[in-house]
Structure formats: C-alpha cells, structure tokens
Amino acid sequence: MNDAVLVTGGAGFIGSHTVATLRAAGRRVVVLDDFSTGRRENLSEWTGDPQVEVVEGDVRGEVGLLLAGHGPFAAVVHLAAQTSVVRSIAAPIDDLDVNLRATTRLALWAAAAGARRFVFASSAAVYGEPCRVPVAESEPTTPLSPYGAAKRAAELYLGCLGPLHGMQTVCLRLFNVYGPRQDPKSPYSGVVATFLARARAGEPLTIFGDGEQTRDLIYVGDVARAICLAVEAGSKEHVLGDMTAGPPEPAGINIGTGREVAVVELAAAVQRACGVKAEAITFAPARAGEIARSAATTDTAAEMLGFRAEVELDEGLRRTAAWLAEQG
Ligand code: UD2
C-alpha cells in the first residue's frame, strides 16, 4: 500500500485544502481531527474515496492507538492547533498543552512510527513586532503572546528532535491566511473572513486603530501548495537545502506573499469584491498587543521549496466571497 501522509487538523480550514492538494498529487491521506473546529462537510468531497481515511481524535490523546492500522506514514503534516492569539493570552497553559506538548509528543510518535518528514504549521507570530519589514527568517524572534512563544518553542523542539530521531522537520511560518472555509462567525476569525461576512450582510466594516497597520495576506490554496511542496521536497528533485543531513537552516520558512497590505486598503478591496459602498466603515480603538507591520520575505520558500504565492488579493477575495455566497 501507498505510504500515507497524516494530516492532523485535516478537517479544518487549512487542513481540508491541504488534503485536496495532497490528493491531487496522488497521495494517500489519513486525517486526524477532533472536530472541535474542523467540519465533516470540509471533507465531503472525499466521501467514498478509499485513499482518504478520517480518524476522529484529539492530538493530545493516544495517537498511536488512534492511528493503529492506518499507516505506514511517509510524512506527517501537523496543523491541529489552538489557533487563537487572544485565547492563548487568556489560557496560556491550554495553549501550551496543544501547541507545544502535543506537537512534541506527536513528533516523537511519528519518528518512532517511521515517518521520514514532519511538516509543522508555525506562524509569523514567532517574530512579534518584526525589526524589519519584510521580515527575513534570520531576524530575531521575540513573540508577544503565549501563542507565538509556543510556536517558536515547537520549532526549537522539532529542530533538535529531528536529527536525534532521524526525521526531517520543516516549520512553515504562516502569515495571515484567508480563503474559503475560514469560519467568519467565530470571535477569533481572521480579518478577511470578518470583513467579507459583514460587507455581504450590508453591515459596516470595523477597523481597529487607524487602519494603517499592515499584514501579508496569503490565499489558503497557496498555503496548501506550500505544505504539499514541503511534504514532497527532496523526493521529487526539489532542492531542500541540506535537509537530508539535518534540520533546515533557518529553523522556519516564511510562507507569505511578500506584499504588505494596510487594513484600510483591505477594507476597500473587500467592498469592491462585494460591490458595496466605501463609506460603510467605522473605526474602533486599536486592539491591545497589535503589531504595526507584517510582511514576509519570500526567497527562502522559493529556494528551499520552489514556492511562490500565486493568487493575487483581488482574486483570492473574489473566490472567498463566492464561497460565502454558496453558504447562503
Ligand atoms: C494573525 C493570526 C494569528 C497569528 C498572528 C501573528 C489570524 C486570524 N490570526 O493575527 O493567528 O498568527 O497573525 O502575528 O490569521 N482587524 C480590523 N477589524 C476587524 C478584524 C481585524 O481592523 O474586524 C485588523 C486587526 O486589528 C489587525 C488586522 O486586521 O490589525 C488583522 O487581524 P487578524 O485578527 O486577522 O490577524 P492578526 O494579524 O491579528
């Protein structure tokens, strides 16, 4: 049997797009998801596909028992996470349990189970307020939240566990991901999902602060492609530095577009995508702990993975708005 790729959090927003990309590459996929935020509908496309197996379970649980009989696994893509910065501040120990402890346990299990590669969803949050924008991977990491600190600590754990246990580890520092299947209703929703849902409902968009703060907004399909490249790199003539000899340098790879978009600019683009009026914007006080600017350098991803983002913001917004329209 074709060795599988395990995708934790595979029923989630980024996870389900990752399953699609891996299936398109001919991979057998095993999804592990506890369905706390993931949705079965996100996987409905593969109902009856024998190459996609879905296991319900928590990554903090006995993963070896949960996945018995589903291997062998060529690689693990670890996306199951506590994804909210705000929640990590309110409940740092819970964040630590999921984002660091479960990640470390999963990596140890994966190595023992014979997986050759472990791809981890890290975050731009490891940088805190970047010294320079666009921020390069070699810049200092000074996370401002337990979320960012746990992601950075997980990178460090993977960086030493990989060579110790003969498994290649790749940490992808995801910037602001948006696209279809991102939940617009949660209080922790990303700005794009929130803006699109409000614009479609004819409600004003609320900008926190003056709206001059910037983010690097990357379409989820591009992120799923980067993840798939990280799984395949090296096995298909991709150049992945000296990954066969040890962990890649630097410890994480930025996954962004390199384009800095101000929140005011995004609001205007969302209104264009939904055909609503520009004056429907209100301003509210800036959020606490907000960073001013964020954008990725993209050369490391290009060199190590052969990855560059392709979907322009207007096109990504159009696709996301179309998906929201289908949801009714
Ligand atoms: C993102 C990630 C977070 C972490 C962090 C790293 C999301 C949802 N969150 O947080 O997980 O990786 O980056 O730095 O991707 N905004 C408004 N109005 C709204 C909602 C948001 O003005 O209704 C602004 C917000 O103040 C911020 C920007 O939009 O300046 C982006 O906010 P966000 O919550 O989408 O993401 P961010 O960058 O805080």
From TrEMBL:
**Residues in NAD-dependent epimerase/dehydratase domain copies:** 5-235
User: Could you tell me which SUPFAM superfamilies the record lists for this protein?
Assistant: NAD(P)-binding Rossmann-fold domains (SSF51735)
**Gene3D superfamilies registered for this protein in UniProt:** NAD(P)-binding Rossmann-like Domain, UDP-galactose 4-epimerase, domain 1
Specify the domain of life of the species encoding this protein: Bacteria
The record ties this protein, via InterPro entries, to:
Epimerase_deHydtase (IPR001509), NAD(P)-bd_dom_sf (IPR036291)
Q: Which family does it belong to?
A: Belongs to the NAD(P)-dependent epimerase/dehydratase family.
Name the UniProt record assigns to this protein: NAD-dependent epimerase/dehydratase family protein
Q: What is the lineage of its organism?
A: Bacteria, Pseudomonadati, Myxococcota, Polyangia, Nannocystales
